[in-house]
Write a structure and sequence with these properties.
By secondary structure, this protein is of the alpha/beta class. 25% of the residues lie in helices and 14% in strands. The structure holds zinc ion. Zinc ion (ZN) binds next to strand 3.
């Protein structure tokens, strides 16, 4: 019987490792050359306070974290650009069609459970979506509850983070359905969205069917992947575009060359702020199935 521990007992074949590196999702940041820092982040005491209170409506703690406040996100659109159906094939998307100058932050797995990050989110009120893997979070489901209480949604990211295309349909279904059940029980709400580890198998009929059978109504990929100091971009010009979905991870010093979760997240916010984008809540742009 294989033990499905994550990061300790699980081993991947060479093919899987190559796939992981190619897709960048959930591979160790330390194993991936980070793009050169665009510029150093704002030092503590940077003139965040020079912005009026109305310019920082998402929270007043920016200076405390050495950050410039992000622009305010526009109100959630009444007519959601993504509309999900209750049955049938689930769509796969890595960006949201919108002209709003917003991006969306998703944070995966759940390995690092740094109390300072909860404090940071309480201060900044930046919306995030959390794609959680049961066997990575089950030792401390409670860590994510204060983050959920801030209005952030919890979404499905399998039971133990396999390469989905390498496992049979039956086990794919277990991976999605059992994470769905655990997260629903723990957090009181069924995940609406699913993200396959490494983005693998997202476009296969087998995975689509597995997801349909378990409850999530869309498969969500990403456009940018946060490393330590900057993002890996899919666009050649290395610029954010309206509606981009950004992948980050709950990671700590072991995976971030000594940087903490809050330092990494601060760098991410700085890269977004430098490009003049606001961060909006992904679920605010998605119409859940009705009826
Ligand atoms: Zn992952």
């Amino acid at each position: 019987m294989q033990t499905h521990g994550w990061g300790r007992t699980r081993t991947y074949g060479a093919g899987a490792l190559a796939l992981m590196a190619a897709l960048t999702g959930c591979s160790s940041a330390s194993g991936t050359p980070a793009a050169p820092p665009v510029k150093s982040s704002a030092p503590p005491g940077a003139p965040a306070a020079s912005s009026s209170a109305s310019a920082a409506p998402q929270g007043t703690g920016w200076a405390k974290w050495g950050l410039q406040p992000l622009p305010q996100a526009p109100a959630a659109p009444a007519d959601k650009p993504i509309k999900l159906a209750r049955t049938g094939t689930v769509p796969v998307f890595s960006e949201v069609p919108t002209k709003d100058k917003v991006v969306f932050i998703t944070i995966d797995d759940g390995a690092e459970k740094d109390p300072k990050f909860v404090e940071m989110m309480n201060d900044l009120k930046v919306p995030i979506s959390m794609f959680l893997t049961r066997d990575i979070v089950k030792d401390d489901y409670g860590y994510f509850k204060p983050l959920q209480a801030l209005g952030n949604h919890i979404q499905n990211h399998t039971v133990d983070h396999p390469v989905m295309s390498k496992i049979p349909a039956e086990r794919q279904k277990t991976e999605v359905c059992d994470d769905q059940a655990a997260l629903t029980q723990q957090y009181g709400k069924a995940p609406l969205l699913f993200r396959p580890p490494y983005g693998d198998g997202a476009h296969t009929p087998t995975l689509n069917t597995s997801v349909q059978q378990c409850g999530p109504r869309a498969i969500v990929l990403w456009r940018e992947s946060m490393q330590i100091h900057d993002m890996q971009y899919q666009a050649a010009d290395k610029k954010l575009r309206p509606g981009d979905i950004i992948l980050a991870h709950f990671r700590g010093p072991k995976d971030l060359k000594g940087e903490t979760m809050t330092q990494m997240f601060g760098e991410l916010l700085s890269r977004i702020q430098e490009q003049g984008f606001a961060v909006a809540r992904l679920e605010d742009y998605i119409q859940a199935p009705t009826g």
